[in-house]
Amino acid sequence: MANLLVHPPLRTKVSLLVIVLTVLVASIITTWIFQQFDKELVARKSDQLSTDNLIVETQIKVHLEEIGQNVLAFAGMPPVREIIRESRNPGTETAESDGKAQLEAIFLQLLKSKTNYLQARLIGVEDSGKELVRVDRPGTPGKARVVPDAELQSKGGTEYFKNAAIIKKGEVSFSNFELNRENGAISKPVIPVVRASTPIFDDNDEFFGIIIINVNVDELFHSLSRLGRESHQLYITNARGDYLFHPDSHKAFGFEFGTPFTIQDEFPKWITLGNNGNRDQAIRFTRSSSKEPYLGYWRRYNFDTHSSDKALIFATSDTLTSVLEESRTVKREAIPIIIMILLVAIAIGLVFASWIARPISEIHHAMKLYRETNEVPKLPVTNSWDEAGQLAFTFSSLVKEINARNLELSETNRELERFAYMTSHDLQEPLRTITSYVSVLDKNYRDSLDPKAQKCLEFITSSATRMQALIQDLLALTKLGNSKIEFVETPLETLVDEILEDLSAMIGQRNARVTYTSLPVLECDPAQMRQLFQNLIVNALKYQKPDVTPEITLLATPGDKEWRLSIADNGIGIDKQYSDQIFDVFRRLHRKEEYSGTGVGLAICKRIVNLHGGRIWVESEPGKGSTFHFTIPTPPVR
Amino acid sequence: MGELKKLKEVVLIDDCEADNFLHSLVIEGTGLVEKVTVFDWAIDALEYFKSPTPPEVDLIFLDINMPRMDGFQFLEEFKKLEFLPKPFVLIMLTTSILEGDKQKFQELGGKEYLGKPLTEETFLDIVAKLQSDQA
User: Fold this and answer.
1) Number of domains in chain B
2) Alpha carbon of A75 to those of A201, A210, A304, A487, B67: distances in Å?
3) Fewest CB atoms within 10 Å of the CB: A121, A258, A359, A525?
């Protein structure tokens, strides 16, 4: 499993690549589109806010100009001129030329026709600015009435009187936007008002007084706030930033009650007073009390040219959340579609991946089959000329070549083995003749030979005997090459007992002790296994130190899918450098006079173990003894 | 080729007892050698040469393939000896003639490289060559 994670199959790799690429491309494109879309929405909202703002400014401008026009119109009216004349020449008034009565009638008419006009007055400069004519709506606001002379007050000290007194003829002065007051106290319910006034002069251009109109702007503000979109918020402040209009109505005119609410306090990151407002686009900002982002546009409008303080700030805003609402809706609708497209792309990727990987996988299976059964596999894509097809083609020719070479090799091998067998077999014939004649010589003519000739005879005898042993071992070895293994359930204990019985003379002669503990029943070739054990036991008996009692121990160890069998002795041991060579044919480490042997025994052992599909090796320490190990697979490898 | 002089001592080093016996028979048969010394083990031969009064050996016949200490190992050890027998001539005897072995042998100071078995003619040739070289 861990291996699969580190080296995933080709199909998984290609699938992963396709999925990663698809998701990457889809997310980059989607993110880009959504960003552009958001940008577009913000730009559009910026335009809307700016337009709203412009409309508000225009409306106020028109409204104030209309009031100014009215004030100017009154200043030039005949009743006003009459009043001035009467004032300059007292006692000339007649019933027909009663300017005061006429003006009162005109003012009354005005207030009746314009419900947002609260007061219209003529104030003279004399008598500390005594009101000469006054029409108002007392109450909340009530019916228009002409104020009796007894109630007329002196207004010469007021701000608006002073402002109007210093401007030129034909000009209009506006007051700041304030709450309406009656007799010095703020009238309830509160009414936001603005006053427009203009100076009037007598025939000698001497300042006579002012005409002044008070206008209720409550309705105006509310109608302006309804102009924009529903999500838009409108704020109107004076030049100091004090709210004159606020969606939260109790924040408007807070300064009149000693609790000022200013726009720069509420939106410190938006509006900078003294600056003319941004004329291009809406900006992003947050409220002082929360992190919610806003988009807003504001501008400053100076409504009285005589004083830069007489300005209004119009600010329109919207929350970014509401600006991007449309974008969110689109995203909500787009995400399932994007996921669908991704799934389709991934599905196509998977199909594509298996399409790429299939031929390679098929080649793999074919080669596996070839390894297991040695049959020439049918490679499925030999006619296609992509990389997989070329691979299959190469494999196919490789397999054919290997098979041809294998056939050739096994033929040569068989011939060599036959040759070796025949040779060793045919060598026995003349050898037998030699030994026969030598034994005749030895028996019948020994006494007539001198000692040197006798020694020669001895050498001939021993060499001939050795050659016989050599040929027999070689025959055994070549026979192994020709033989097929006959797997039979073989109880090793019985087998070893028989061998020990056969070797009893040798064991007895050397006074050796051979022991074993519970040997298994193995599926193997009994004849070969017998030879294997016999060779190893004989070697263990043979290569002994003089004056030491040979101790030989047989041991069987079960392993994973195999048995390990070990034969340990306390003999002369083998130097580590020879531990591989000793299994080669004719490899001897000792003079034959010291230890007899042909140099074939261990080669036979190795051949037998290999034929059974096992391994053979030796562990040894010179002077202390050797342990020969070999393994036999279970179940057997056929 | 004039009259051959008699050699004092010839040493045979071979692990095969039969070969040693045969070779000593052949050498003695020529009547040209006073003493033939035979060693089955190269290490024993080395000890023989190490003696404080080294023998006056004329010829050494050495086998290559021997257990424990082979012919080449013997040669290397032999050359390290403090008192080398003078004059000494090394002849290698082997069952298998290999070019690589021959070259190695000559590099180590060997004289002749011959195949087994040693015959009377070969031995006489060697002695003749040896004495003509010395003359």
Assistant:
1) 1
2) 9, 8, 19, 137, 147
3) A258
